[in-house]
Amino acid sequence: MNTVNISTGFSPFQLKTGRSPRLIPPIIPILTGTTEDDITAHEIIIRLQMDVQEAQDNLLAAKVRQAYHANEHCAPEDIYQPSDFVMLSMTHWR
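Above: the chain sequence. Below: its structure as C-alpha cells.
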C-alpha cells in the first residue's frame, strides 16, 4: 500500500489520494494554530495534479533510460540492397 514504485517515484495510494498514509508519528511537530481544515479542496486537487504530472515525468525518464541501456549493446544494423544475396536459416521452418 505504501511501497513507492521505482519508475513513478510515488506509491499508488499517494497518486490516488494525494497523501501517503502515516505509519509512525511525524517527527516534526505540527505548527500551533494550524488545523486540517486549513487545507482546502483546491490545494488537494492541485497537489494531486502535480503528483500525477511528476509521476508521468518519472515514467518518461525511466522509459528513456531503459531504451538507452537496451540499445547500448545492440550491434550496428546491416543495410541490404535489393540485389544483395543473403543466407536464411530454415531451422525452425515447418
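Residues 14-20+40-72 form one domain.
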